[in-house]
Please model this.
Amino acid sequence: MGQAPTTARLVLASRLEDVPRAEQAVMDAVSRHGFDQSSCFAIKLAVEEALINAIKHGNGGDESREIVVEINVSDKQACVGVTDEGVGFVPNGVPDPTLDENLEKPNGRGIMLMRAYMNEVTFNEAGNCVTMIKQRR
Amino acid sequence: MADSESRLMIQRDGEITVAHFMDRNILDEANIQRIGEELAALVENAPVPKILIDFDNVDHLSSAALGALITVNNKVRQKDGQLRLANIDPQIHEVFKITKLDKLFQIHKNSHEAIKSFK
Model:
Protein backbone atom coordinates (compact mmCIF):
# COMPACT_ATOMS: atom_id res chain seq x y z
CA MET A 1 0.00 0.00 0.00
CA GLY A 2 1.40 3.41 -0.95
CA GLN A 3 1.93 6.37 1.28
CA ALA A 4 -0.76 9.00 1.76
CA PRO A 5 -0.24 12.00 -0.53
CA THR A 6 1.95 14.81 0.72
CA THR A 7 0.33 18.20 0.44
CA ALA A 8 1.62 21.61 1.36
CA ARG A 9 0.79 25.22 0.65
CA LEU A 10 3.58 27.78 0.92
CA VAL A 11 3.19 31.51 0.69
CA LEU A 12 6.38 33.33 -0.31
CA ALA A 13 7.38 36.92 -0.69
CA SER A 14 8.63 37.73 -4.19
CA ARG A 15 12.26 37.31 -3.26
CA LEU A 16 14.82 35.18 -5.05
CA GLU A 17 16.25 34.20 -1.65
CA ASP A 18 12.99 32.38 -0.87
CA VAL A 19 13.18 30.17 -3.96
CA PRO A 20 15.43 27.47 -2.42
CA ARG A 21 13.01 26.99 0.51
CA ALA A 22 10.09 26.31 -1.82
CA GLU A 23 12.20 24.11 -4.06
CA GLN A 24 13.38 22.10 -1.08
CA ALA A 25 9.80 21.51 0.07
CA VAL A 26 8.95 20.09 -3.35
CA MET A 27 12.11 17.99 -3.53
CA ASP A 28 11.55 16.58 -0.04
CA ALA A 29 8.04 15.52 -1.05
CA VAL A 30 9.05 13.85 -4.32
CA SER A 31 11.95 12.05 -2.63
CA ARG A 32 9.60 10.76 0.04
CA HIS A 33 7.36 9.29 -2.66
CA GLY A 34 10.18 7.53 -4.47
CA PHE A 35 10.61 9.64 -7.60
CA ASP A 36 13.82 8.64 -9.40
CA GLN A 37 16.84 10.88 -9.87
CA SER A 38 15.95 11.82 -13.43
CA SER A 39 12.42 12.86 -12.40
CA CYS A 40 13.84 14.84 -9.49
CA PHE A 41 16.16 16.69 -11.88
CA ALA A 42 13.17 17.48 -14.13
CA ILE A 43 10.91 18.64 -11.29
CA LYS A 44 13.62 20.81 -9.72
CA LEU A 45 14.30 22.52 -13.05
CA ALA A 46 10.61 23.11 -13.81
CA VAL A 47 9.83 24.42 -10.31
CA GLU A 48 12.84 26.75 -10.45
CA GLU A 49 11.68 28.15 -13.79
CA ALA A 50 8.10 28.62 -12.57
CA LEU A 51 9.19 30.39 -9.38
CA ILE A 52 11.63 32.70 -11.17
CA ASN A 53 8.96 33.56 -13.76
CA ALA A 54 6.47 34.31 -10.96
CA ILE A 55 8.93 36.59 -9.14
CA LYS A 56 10.48 38.39 -12.09
CA HIS A 57 7.72 38.53 -14.66
CA GLY A 58 4.50 37.82 -12.74
CA ASN A 59 5.09 39.98 -9.69
CA GLY A 60 7.63 42.19 -11.45
CA GLY A 61 10.11 41.85 -8.58
CA ASP A 62 7.73 43.60 -6.19
CA GLU A 63 8.54 41.98 -2.83
CA SER A 64 5.20 43.01 -1.33
CA ARG A 65 3.42 40.69 -3.76
CA GLU A 66 3.09 37.07 -2.76
CA ILE A 67 3.60 33.79 -4.52
CA VAL A 68 1.59 30.74 -3.53
CA VAL A 69 3.11 27.31 -4.10
CA GLU A 70 0.77 24.35 -3.82
CA ILE A 71 2.33 20.93 -3.61
CA ASN A 72 0.45 17.66 -3.97
CA VAL A 73 2.64 14.59 -4.34
CA SER A 74 1.46 10.98 -4.34
CA ASP A 75 3.15 7.73 -5.28
CA LYS A 76 1.73 8.24 -8.78
CA GLN A 77 2.43 11.87 -9.58
CA ALA A 78 3.74 15.20 -8.41
CA CYS A 79 1.58 18.26 -8.93
CA VAL A 80 2.99 21.73 -8.24
CA GLY A 81 1.05 24.93 -8.69
CA VAL A 82 2.66 28.37 -8.67
CA THR A 83 0.44 31.44 -8.51
CA ASP A 84 1.59 35.05 -8.58
CA GLU A 85 -0.26 38.33 -8.15
CA GLY A 86 0.57 39.65 -11.58
CA VAL A 87 -1.76 40.41 -14.45
CA GLY A 88 -0.79 37.21 -16.23
CA PHE A 89 0.32 36.67 -19.81
CA VAL A 90 -0.54 34.67 -22.91
CA PRO A 91 1.69 31.57 -22.78
CA ASN A 92 1.28 30.82 -26.48
CA GLY A 93 2.44 34.34 -27.27
CA VAL A 94 5.99 33.55 -26.10
CA PRO A 95 8.27 33.17 -29.16
CA ASP A 96 9.76 29.72 -29.80
CA PRO A 97 13.30 30.00 -28.37
CA THR A 98 14.53 27.07 -30.47
CA LEU A 99 14.05 28.89 -33.79
CA ASP A 100 17.36 29.87 -35.39
CA GLU A 101 16.53 33.58 -35.15
CA ASN A 102 15.94 33.26 -31.39
CA LEU A 103 18.88 31.03 -30.43
CA GLU A 104 21.13 33.94 -29.50
CA LYS A 105 18.50 35.64 -27.34
CA PRO A 106 19.35 35.15 -23.66
CA ASN A 107 15.74 34.98 -22.43
CA GLY A 108 12.54 33.08 -23.12
CA ARG A 109 13.43 29.43 -22.39
CA GLY A 110 11.74 28.91 -19.03
CA ILE A 111 8.31 27.84 -20.25
CA MET A 112 9.65 25.55 -22.94
CA LEU A 113 11.85 23.81 -20.36
CA MET A 114 8.89 23.40 -18.02
CA ARG A 115 6.90 21.83 -20.87
CA ALA A 116 9.81 19.63 -21.93
CA TYR A 117 10.47 18.25 -18.47
CA MET A 118 6.96 17.85 -17.04
CA ASN A 119 4.14 15.66 -18.36
CA GLU A 120 1.56 18.44 -18.15
CA VAL A 121 1.91 22.21 -17.86
CA THR A 122 -1.26 24.26 -17.82
CA PHE A 123 -1.94 27.93 -17.17
CA ASN A 124 -5.15 29.40 -15.86
CA GLU A 125 -7.05 31.74 -18.12
CA ALA A 126 -5.53 34.85 -16.59
CA GLY A 127 -2.02 33.43 -17.02
CA ASN A 128 -0.88 34.06 -13.44
CA CYS A 129 -1.08 30.44 -12.24
CA VAL A 130 0.80 27.50 -13.66
CA THR A 131 0.11 23.90 -12.71
CA MET A 132 2.74 21.30 -13.52
CA ILE A 133 2.39 17.53 -13.27
CA LYS A 134 5.09 14.88 -13.41
CA GLN A 135 4.06 11.22 -13.43
CA ARG A 136 6.22 8.91 -11.35
CA ARG A 137 7.96 6.34 -13.52
CA MET B 1 42.51 32.95 -8.67
CA ALA B 2 39.32 32.82 -6.66
CA ASP B 3 38.34 35.46 -4.15
CA SER B 4 35.67 34.76 -1.57
CA GLU B 5 32.98 36.32 -3.77
CA SER B 6 34.05 34.60 -6.94
CA ARG B 7 31.76 31.93 -8.39
CA LEU B 8 34.44 30.78 -10.84
CA MET B 9 37.89 29.27 -10.55
CA ILE B 10 40.10 30.47 -13.36
CA GLN B 11 43.10 28.67 -14.82
CA ARG B 12 45.32 29.64 -17.75
CA ASP B 13 46.52 27.17 -20.34
CA GLY B 14 48.70 29.22 -22.71
CA GLU B 15 46.40 31.71 -24.38
CA ILE B 16 43.32 29.76 -23.28
CA THR B 17 41.39 30.73 -20.17
CA VAL B 18 39.65 27.84 -18.42
CA ALA B 19 36.76 28.69 -16.10
CA HIS B 20 35.40 26.15 -13.60
CA PHE B 21 32.18 26.73 -11.69
CA MET B 22 32.38 26.80 -7.90
CA ASP B 23 28.71 25.81 -7.54
CA ARG B 24 27.08 22.47 -8.28
CA ASN B 25 23.74 24.21 -8.86
CA ILE B 26 23.79 27.11 -11.27
CA LEU B 27 20.27 28.07 -10.37
CA ASP B 28 20.54 30.92 -7.94
CA GLU B 29 19.92 34.23 -9.69
CA ALA B 30 22.48 36.18 -7.69
CA ASN B 31 25.15 33.59 -8.49
CA ILE B 32 24.21 33.58 -12.15
CA GLN B 33 24.53 37.33 -12.32
CA ARG B 34 27.93 37.14 -10.66
CA ILE B 35 29.06 34.34 -13.02
CA GLY B 36 27.91 36.40 -16.01
CA GLU B 37 29.88 39.41 -14.78
CA GLU B 38 33.03 37.36 -14.16
CA LEU B 39 32.85 35.73 -17.59
CA ALA B 40 32.20 39.12 -19.21
CA ALA B 41 35.33 40.47 -17.50
CA LEU B 42 37.37 37.58 -18.92
CA VAL B 43 36.13 38.46 -22.40
CA GLU B 44 36.77 42.17 -21.95
CA ASN B 45 40.30 41.63 -20.66
CA ALA B 46 41.41 39.55 -23.62
CA PRO B 47 42.13 41.09 -27.03
CA VAL B 48 40.87 37.90 -28.73
CA PRO B 49 39.28 35.74 -26.04
CA LYS B 50 39.73 31.97 -26.06
CA ILE B 51 37.63 30.67 -23.22
CA LEU B 52 36.78 27.16 -22.09
CA ILE B 53 33.98 26.79 -19.57
CA ASP B 54 34.34 23.50 -17.71
CA PHE B 55 31.10 22.11 -16.22
CA ASP B 56 32.78 19.33 -14.25
CA ASN B 57 31.17 20.28 -10.93
CA VAL B 58 27.74 21.23 -12.21
CA ASP B 59 24.65 19.07 -11.76
CA HIS B 60 21.85 21.62 -12.13
CA LEU B 61 21.30 24.77 -14.14
CA SER B 62 18.40 26.98 -15.16
CA SER B 63 17.32 28.97 -18.19
CA ALA B 64 18.83 32.06 -16.56
CA ALA B 65 22.22 30.32 -16.54
CA LEU B 66 21.75 29.46 -20.21
CA GLY B 67 20.97 33.13 -20.81
CA ALA B 68 24.21 34.16 -19.12
CA LEU B 69 26.17 31.73 -21.30
CA ILE B 70 24.48 33.07 -24.44
CA THR B 71 25.38 36.62 -23.46
CA VAL B 72 29.01 35.57 -22.96
CA ASN B 73 28.98 33.76 -26.30
CA ASN B 74 27.69 36.90 -28.02
CA LYS B 75 30.45 39.00 -26.41
CA VAL B 76 33.13 36.48 -27.42
CA ARG B 77 31.90 36.53 -31.01
CA GLN B 78 31.93 40.33 -31.09
CA LYS B 79 35.67 40.11 -30.42
CA ASP B 80 36.24 37.29 -32.91
CA GLY B 81 37.07 35.02 -30.02
CA GLN B 82 36.29 31.38 -29.35
CA LEU B 83 34.19 29.81 -26.61
CA ARG B 84 34.07 26.12 -25.79
CA LEU B 85 32.06 24.16 -23.22
CA ALA B 86 33.19 20.81 -21.80
CA ASN B 87 32.53 18.10 -19.21
CA ILE B 88 28.78 18.60 -19.27
CA ASP B 89 26.78 16.08 -17.25
CA PRO B 90 24.44 14.03 -19.51
CA GLN B 91 21.30 15.45 -17.87
CA ILE B 92 22.52 18.99 -18.41
CA HIS B 93 23.60 18.17 -21.95
CA GLU B 94 19.99 17.17 -22.52
CA VAL B 95 18.94 20.70 -21.51
CA PHE B 96 21.26 22.07 -24.21
CA LYS B 97 19.75 19.65 -26.73
CA ILE B 98 16.13 20.44 -25.84
CA THR B 99 16.78 24.15 -26.18
CA LYS B 100 18.85 23.51 -29.35
CA LEU B 101 21.69 25.42 -27.76
CA ASP B 102 23.94 22.50 -28.66
CA LYS B 103 23.82 24.11 -32.13
CA LEU B 104 24.95 27.47 -30.79
CA PHE B 105 27.76 26.30 -28.50
CA GLN B 106 30.75 24.14 -29.30
CA ILE B 107 30.44 21.42 -26.69
CA HIS B 108 33.21 18.88 -26.07
CA LYS B 109 33.27 15.70 -24.02
CA ASN B 110 36.21 16.79 -21.90
CA SER B 111 38.53 19.73 -21.42
CA HIS B 112 41.40 17.99 -23.23
CA GLU B 113 39.37 17.74 -26.44
CA ALA B 114 38.06 21.26 -25.99
CA ILE B 115 41.55 22.71 -25.62
CA LYS B 116 42.71 20.88 -28.76
CA SER B 117 39.78 22.41 -30.70
CA PHE B 118 40.90 26.02 -30.30
CA LYS B 119 42.29 27.53 -33.50
